[in-house]
Amino acid sequence: MSTSPTISLSELLSGADAAGHDHALTEKNSGLQHIHNHATGAIVWFPTWRKFRETSDWSEEVDAFVEDFRSGALPVEAGASRFLARDLDALLTRAAASSDANVFVQENLTKHLTRTWAVADAVAEAAGTDLPTGGTKPSIFADYPYDVYAQDGGAFATALWNDVIDARRNRALADEAARKALKPVSRKALKNAARKAARR
Prior knowledge:
By secondary structure, the protein is mainly alpha-helical. Helix content is 64%, strand content 6%. The mean pLDDT is 87.
């Protein structure tokens, strides 16, 4: 790596949590963004993709992904694309099975955002090319459902947040439909059905 950041992401996030109620000012001063989780009353902070590169977490994650992708059976970009698809699918599957989607997204959103950005940066590092700047979409995101760099990552966070909540809601609706389909038929309903059949 060309730089050696010393501040951790957790330190940045903790600083934002302790900064008080002027969230706009905190965003301006910290390089972070936030979403207000109205269901829990919590503020979920996450870095812009640029700010994430200034943390020690970024350098550690990118180094680890570079090693993984270079040692994988697939070419680097193909391996990265497959990882992203599987990682997103796993996140939404876990969200659907969670007991509370609002708590789940609060606990998992930031990590997923930063991991996705780290994958793209690792591909650039492995190829010896410049890091993505948000101007053009890296090829590993050709089939990815989100624009991960728009609004410094804010659009990605908002869309992913909504999809996590929807995953749990859709599972709940499917479970309810399944319960209704398996609901025992009453004796009265069976008698009525038998009478109707006898008339035919």
